[in-house]
Amino acid sequence: MKLRRSERMVVISNYLLNNPYKLTSLSTFASQYEAAKSSISEDIAIIKKAFQEAGIGEIETITGANGGVLFRPTIARSEARALVEDLRERLSESDRILPGGYIYLSDLLSTPKILQNVGRIMADAFKGQAIDAVMTVATKGVPLANAVANILNVPFVIVRRDLKITEGSTVSVNYASGSSGRIEKMFLSKRSLKPNSRVLIVDDFLKGGGTISGMISLLDEFDCQLVGVAVFAENIQQRQDRKDYKSLLKVSDIDIKDHKITVKIGNIFD
Fold it and tell me: What is the dihedral of CA 99, 105, 110, 115, to 10 degrees?
């Protein structure tokens, strides 16, 4: 398919945006668009500059026989803060208070645009890390983990709180629920993770930290390494078992009687 330079740059840009963290050789583009590798290299240089200036992402050109072009999505810090500030305001709405000190998040975590933006912010926070998979527990965190995994272009695995015959053989661990203090159990299919995988844990709401501790215990059972933990919101009124996590938002006070929620920006930008 022979294209003019302007057309070629559009389709190459679209390819990179839809294939993040995928190494593609210059020869692939040269063959597909019937252009010299030197011309493709010039195209990539122009796209790289535009992506960087617009805060879209970083393009790395790797030389050598196994080299090529690799696109890493990013988000400008000013844009990310503006998005999180908007979420902070929406999360502060008084009608979100639920029994037990929880907050209604379903509307936010079911909106595609919000999920895409949060996925970009969380993925950007760990862009310097090699990540093989994203893990979450079977709650409202599933679409969030899926959004992060899409940006990182890696699989995401779901930990379940009950046995599913469709999961096949599973590994289970007991953990202490951070909110209730009860001993509970979680399960993960043996086929979900390969040994030595580097895993990012993503969750929607961090209250006591017990669920995340349980997922980390599962990683030990699979001989996998924890890269980090990212949560949409945390309740800092509760004692957290772990401190090495990144949160977009933190709830510092839930006044059920007066229907008030105090929400601040989390440590994602620290």
Answer: -160
Q: What is the pLDDT of residues 63-77, one digit of tens each?
A: 887 889 999 999 999
136-139 long-range Cβ contacts below 8 angstroms, 24+ apart: 136/201, 136/202, 136/203, 137/161, 137/186, 137/203, 137/211, 137/214, 137/215, 139/203, 139/204
CATH number for the domain formed by residue range(s) 77-269: 3.40.50.2020
Across the strands, what pairs with 58? 72
Predicted local confidence at residue 242, as pLDDT: 55
C-alpha 156/C-alpha 146 separation (Å) is 6
Instruction: Please give the pLDDT value at position 240.
Output: 55
Q: pLDDT tens for residues 105-147?
A: 999 999 999 999 999 999 999 988 999 999 999 988 899 999 9
Q: Where are the domains of the chain?
A: 5-73, 77-269
Q: Give me the helices (H) in 55-161, please.
A: 77-91, 112-125, 141-152
Tell me what pLDDT residue 11 has.
Answer: 97
Asked if the model's pLDDT at residue 165 lies above 80, the reply is no
Its pTM stands at 0.90
Pick the CATH number of 5-73 from 3.40.50.150, 2.40.100.10, 3.40.50.970, 1.10.10.10: 1.10.10.10
Pair 231, 211: CB distance under 8 Å: no
Strand, helix or coil for residue 132: coil
What ranges make up the beta strands (E) of 119-245? 133-137, 156-159, 170-176, 183-189, 198-206, 225-235
Q: Are 181 and 160 in contact (CB under 8 A)?
A: no
SS3 at position 24? strand
